[in-house]
Write a structure and sequence with these properties.
This protein is of the alpha/beta class and 460 residues long. The chain contains eleven helices and 17 strands. The protein has two domains: 136 residues, Sandwich (Immunoglobulin-like); 279 residues, TIM Barrel, CATH 3.20.20. The strands form three sheets. The chain has an eight-stranded parallel β-barrel with strand order 2-3-4-5-6-7-8-9, surrounded by four helices.
Amino acid sequence: MKRISSIFLAPAVLLFIAANCEKPVPDPNEGLVTVTYTPSEENFPNPERGFYAPAEVFSADGRAISDQSFSAARLQGRSLYLLEFHLTDYVATDIAEDYLQTIRIKFQSLRDGGAKCILRFCYSNGFDEKDKPWDATPEQVARHIAQLKPIIQEYYDVIMVVQAGFVGSWGEWYYTENFKDNASRKALVEALLDAVPAERQIELRTPAFKMKLFGISLADTLTLAESHLPTTKARLAGHNDCYLSSQNDVGTFNGPSERKFWQAESLYTIMGGESCEFTAYCHCNGAETYNGALKDLALYHFTYLNVSYHPSVLRRWREEGCMEEIRKRLGYRYVLEEGQFTKEPEAGNPFQIKLTLRNDGFAPAQNPRDAELVLTDASGKVVKTWKLDSDPRYWMPAQQTVIDQTVILPEGIAGSMTLHLNLPDPCATIHDNPFFSIRLANEDVWDENTGYNSLYSFNL
């Protein structure tokens, strides 16, 4: 029997054979067509974000917010109001039915006009002796909240957030004779949490109120897993009404830990407010001793600011050239970068959609938001809608989000089709109103008649 001798190959030869015998790595994008989108520099209105117009409402005012004010606000890229209802005439009595009706009228005018509000109730419009009483007793406030609860429940669709209010001058929780202890303030907040639907947050004036009233420390800041749940911890947000107005924002912060607390929490809870003094801290860009507005707004994830106050601060931002950037970046600003789609789609077969987007805003969307893929035919008729497997509340600022989803195209469809991204309000009362849908910051994607953002057109 003939022995077969062993064959030895040099290592370099073995490496050559191995390299050329490896299986090719499949391209994950093979079979997809790529579409790139052009970013828009336009300042346009989007729901639940931006500069707000303040509106004080007194018991003698039974008028609705005018159509002219809505139109003017939209032309300036705004869709948000602060509705501050003054209960001055009812410090010691129940709220009269005619004023309750005024409140309903204001909410209905928001719904009809395609706008939302930051909501606050207060008793006094000043802090001098002549302005007393600054607020009502805890018992009377509880009665008022009970009266307001059914109205808030009915119109919460047009309420972006509720400020705790009620306590002290302007409802800002400072000048008060009736709420000097933590127990009474905590009871008020708990009454509001009950009165306001779980889909909405309650804003407290300083981080210390949330921390002290509810026993929360810096180590207990909201996590991703805890965020946007119907819990007290997840529903308590903040508003800073002396923003960039001193080293501690005129008592808003008691130290670095409270600043870190709001910086962390505001990624998952609404943050907004206004400035109250003109100081060196409100320059557009920072220096060694302060952040400057642009960096600070990003650190605290600001969703809204007052368009009217403080006028000197706003003027500085215009003069230093950062106002337009602030206008565009308050809250979310979602920008499509790229879309990839099945190259040869067929009715009844899987169709892959891969979207890459970024958030150029200071914050993500904070309230519940539907996200849908909508397929329309050449006439614009909706052929099919699919729920998107992604939540816009987690499309984080300064981050890229990739959404990869495969759907099944309906059987029997043919002709020209267009796929859209629709980000409507989840409330049935306004779900189909395009004023309440999110517009992406891209050129040539927005349809103002439907509220859809066009992604891709193809033929079957």
